[in-house]
Structures are given as structure tokens and as C-alpha cells.
Design goal:
The protein has about 350 residues and is of the alpha/beta class. The protein is built from 12 helices and 13 strands. The longest helix is centred in the middle third of the chain and has 15 residues, at about 150-165.
Length: about 350
């Protein structure tokens, strides 16, 4: 039995974490940290948790929480974790950071894309990228886990097997991605208001989105057999869709000469054999966000455009579960030796 804390518990990702963890049989106690709602019952902000979790939110103080807990989840904006996480905290507990501060190994790349100084250079070498299906062994022995972003999780899981197997041209990758509005967080933003986004779809962060270098680094590692995080450059364009949850990525790449459908299917099967949370739909069947909503599953399907010799591979997941909180719980389960699907067994909800 372990004790956990969620720092930033009243944001969407933090609240989803708390929802999942209340159903975890190995969790003894949960502390919900909140800067804005300290001292206020969590269920007052999220009435869906009434009679399930009525405890008051506590102060977001990592040093205090580290002495009380076995694991702390950080559901915070970028730039905060690198200032607050240190060796003394890691000696006391495991940190699973849902933010971006420890995802990129190159501080220069981080500071270029996130426009802020990184304060945790000494810890970067200790951080493990928490994409469970790719780095399970490393995660198992880590004290600092960088939980991947939602767009990146979907894009990497969809494309990595093709690069590992050498089936696609590395300079030909285009990723067209769609996200529900919850991906923008719970804070008040004009672009997230109902009248601003309902009945409309729009691209944003065109050629500038911060998930781009994360995708490129991880796909480069897939290409280079985890030896070098450079070599891949992608065109990545995200879009905002007027739905609450979901990520859909449509990935295009040029196939190498002689690659057949059977080679592609074999690459996916070899990469994800035995992976509980990856559902391979196969050739000609494509995922939809409604079939993964509320779950930790990632669905992947593909086809080949024979006119252009391009593969079109599609992935779908719930941005708040497999794209954030669910993957964080999956990482925790790996670190503490629990069954990987504990508290994540709930099937997708439909209709919602």
C-alpha cells in the first residue's frame, strides 16, 4: 500500500488522476494539492467526486509532500517542476511529472521551444521518458519519470514501429493531429470558450507547437535504436476540435521501395505484441476518438495509398487518460511492481 499526492489536482489532468487513483486497491491515501483551492473540499470543485473524495485540498509544497508520500504526480504548467524537484525530494519519493520539463534531453531545445530557462540540468540524466510501451524497463528503475504529452503519445505510438523496422523514408513524415478542448487545460482562455470553439475547427501552433521537438526526439531514437535523439524532422500541425476529449493523429510517410502491407502489419505486431493498451485495428480499419473515450487504450489503423506509395497511419486516444493521467498511473504501476492495468481496466464509455 502506498501514499500518493497530486500537485495541481484541480486541473483537468490532476482531477482525472484523482478519479483513477480512488479506484486503485494499492493506494492507501491521496493528498490533493492545489494552489488556488487550498483548504477547500475537492468535491466542491468537482461535484462528480462527492462522497468519493471529499477531503480538502492541501498546499502544493513538494518538500512537505515528499516526506508524507511514496509518489508525487506533478500536474503543473511547464517551468515549475525543474525549479522545485531536487535530489533530496527524489531520495524520499518518486516523481511523475505530467509537464514538459524533463521530457527533452537537450536543454537548449527545451529553452528554445518553451521560452523559459530550465533550472534542473543536473536531473535531466536521471529522468526517464514515461512512454510505457517503449521504455518499460527504464521506467521500472526510475525515480523521476517524464510523462509524455498527449499529441506525442499518439504520434509516437503510431509511427515508431514503422521507423524501427525501416519501412518509411525518415524525411517524409507529416502529422495532422486533432484534439478536444480539454487539452487546453481548465484555466480561462478566450479560445476555449464555448462560443469561440463550438461549430468550428482550426489549426493552431502551426510550425511552432511545443510537442514538435518531443515527437522528433523520440522518433529519432526509434530510428536509431535508442542511440541518438536526432535525425528526424516532421511537419506537425495540431487542430482544435469542439469536443471535450480525444486525440486523433493522421500520419503520412513515404514507404521505402518494396515495402508491402504484410511488412507493415508485422512491424506493428512485433512492436506491440502483448501490449495491453495498444489495439491494432489492422489494414483498412481506422480509429475514432469515441471508441477510446474515458479509457487508457490507444487504437491504431492504417492503409497504403498505392498511387503515391504512402502509408496513412491513424492513432486515437483519450488525451486525459492515455495522453496524461492514465499513462501516469500506468507508470506508477510499473515502478511499484503492481499489475500494469490496475485502476485502468475500465472499458471506453459510449455513448457520452
Amino acid at each position: 500500500m502506498i501514499e500518493v499526492a497530486i500537485v495541481g489536482a484541480t486541473g483537468y489532468a490532476g482531477a482525472e488522476l484523482l478519479r483513477l487513483l480512488t479506484a486503485h486497491p494499492q493506494i492507501k491515501h491521496i493528498l490533493a494539492g492545489s494552489q488556488s483551492y487550498e483548504g477547500i473540499p475537492f468535491s466542491r470543485q468537482y461535484p462528480s467526486m462527492k462522497a468519493i473524495y471529499d477531503e480538502s485540498c492541501v498546499e502544493n509544497d513538494l518538500n512537505t509532500l515528499a516526506r508524507q508520500c511514496d509518489v508525487i504526480f506533478l500536474a503543473l504548467p511547464h517551468g515549475i517542476a525543474s525549479k522545485q524537484v531536487n535530489e533530496a525530494i527524489l531520495d524520499q519519493c518518486v516523481i511523475i511529472d505530467l509537464g514538459a520539463d524533463f521530457r527533452l534531453k537537450d536543454i537548449g531545445v527545451y529553452e528554445q521551444w518553451y521560452k523559459t530557462k530550465h533550472e534542473g540540468r543536473a536531473l535531466l540524466s536521471k529522468a526517464v521518458y514515461g512512454l510505457c510501451e517503449l521504455y518499460r524497463d527504464e521506467i521500472r528503475h526510475s525515480r523521476l519519470i517524464a510523462n509524455p504529452g498527449c499529441y506525442t503519445t499518439c504520434s509516437i505510438l503510431t509511427l515508431a514501429p514503422l521507423l524501427k523496422a525501416g519501412l518509411i523514408e525518415k524525411d517524409s513524415i507529416i502529422i495532422d493531429a486533432k484534439s478536444g478542448v480539454s487539452g487546453a487545460g481548465r484555466s480561462e482562455k478566450i479560445d476555449s470558450m464555448f462560443c469561440e470553439c463550438n461549430e468550428s475547427i482550426k489549426p493552431y501552433g502551426v510550425a511552432t507547437h511545443r510537442h514538435t521537438p518531443e515527437i522528433e526526439e523520440q522518433l529519432s531514437l526509434a530510428l536509431n535504436n535508442n542511440t541518438e535523439g536526432t535525425g528526424i524532422t516532421v511537419s506537425f500541425t495540431p487542430h482544435l476540435v469542439p469536443m471535450n476529449r480525444g486525440i486523433l493523429t493522421t500520419c503520412y510517410a513515404q514507404l521505402k521501395s518494396g515495402v508491402q502491407t504484410a511488412h507493415i502489419e508485422q512491424a506493428y505486431k512485433e512492436s506491440y505484441a502483448g501490449e495491453h493498451f495498444i489495439r491494432l485495428l489492422g489494414y483498412g480499419t481506422f480509429p475514432e476518438t469515441r471508441w477510446v473515450k474515458g479509457s487508457n487504450w490507444c487504437d491504431i489503423g492504417f492503409t497504403v495509398d498505392k498511387r503515391t506509395n504512402r502509408i496513412i497511419a491513424c492513432g486515437a486516444l483519450d488525451n486525459l487518460v492515455k495522453g496524461a493521467a492514465g499513462q501516469a498511473v500506468q507508470n506508477m504501476n510499473i515502478v511499484f511492481g503492481f499489475a500494469e492495468d490496475v485502476a485502468l481496466e475500465t472499458p471506453p464509455a459510449f455513448p457520452v
